Amino acid sequence: MNHDTRPVGWVKAARKTFESFPATVRDRVGTALTIAAEGGRADIAKPLKGLGAGVMQIAVRYRTDAWRVVYVTELAGRLWVIHAFRKKSKTGIGTPKAEIDLVRGRLARLRRETMP
Questions:
Q1: pLDDT band at 89; cut points 50, 70, 90
Q2: CB of 13 within 8 A of CB of 82?
Q3: pLDDT tens digits, one per residue of 62-88
Q4: How far apart, in Å, do the first and last CA atoms of the chain sit?
Q5: Residue pair 36/29 in contact by the 8 Å Cβ criterion
Q6: Do 93 and 21 touch, CB atoms closer than 8 A?
């Protein structure tokens, strides 16, 4: 392990949902999270707009579904996974508002809980 690798923290609900993803999707997301923890950015990760600097979304297409994991690159010295979901919307590529609202709420709570 790279000595500059940040630890990865998980919001409990995000971990639970992530564990229900197909193994292939979990493997791809796991690799992308490792790259992020080491300070890089996987080709399947991109900024999630409108939520501030460092909020990223990993997108994996598998079979007929789209799987998403949202993380924040730096909060209290960790990379935090704050949301995981299966994108059900068939209209467009945008992240559904309900998912964005959930991310926004979890991010605010996490910031409050991790601030010194």
A1: low
A2: no
A3: 988 999 999 998 888 899 999 999 987
A4: 28
A5: no
A6: no
What CATH number is associated with residue 80? 3.30.2310.20
Say if 86 falls within a structural domain: yes
Q: Look at the chain and count its residues.
A: 116
| Structural domain contains residue 109 | yes
Count the neighbouring beta carbons within 10 Å of the beta carbon of residue 24: 12
Sheet holding 45-47, edge to edge: 8-10, 78-87, 65-75, 55-62, 45-47
- The residue among 31, 7, 20, 30 whose CA lies nearest residue 80 is 7
Domain extent at residue 80: 8-114
Confidence class for position 61, pLDDT limits 50, 70, 90 = very high
Q: What is the pTM of this model?
A: 0.90
